[in-house]
Amino acid sequence: EGFARLWRGTNAGLALAIPT
After folding, report:
1. What confidence category does residue 20 fall into, taking pLDDT thresholds of 50, 70 and 90?
2. CA distances from 7 to 15, 17, 18 (A)
3. Does pTM surpass 0.90?
4. How many Å apart are CA 5 and CA 9, to the nearest integer?
C-alpha cells in the first residue's frame, strides 16, 4: 500500500508541476 500510495502522490505532483 505504501508504494502505491507514494506512486499516486508522485503522479499527482507531476500532473500539477507539468502544465498540460
Report:
1. low
2. 12, 15, 16
3. no
4. 6
Cell matching residue 13: 505532483
CA distances from 16 to 1, 3, 4, 7 (A): 23, 20, 18, 14
Rounded Cα gap, residues 14 and 18, in angstroms: 6
Opening angle at CA 15, ends 11 and 20, nearest 5 = 145
The Cα 8–Cα 6 span in angstroms is 5
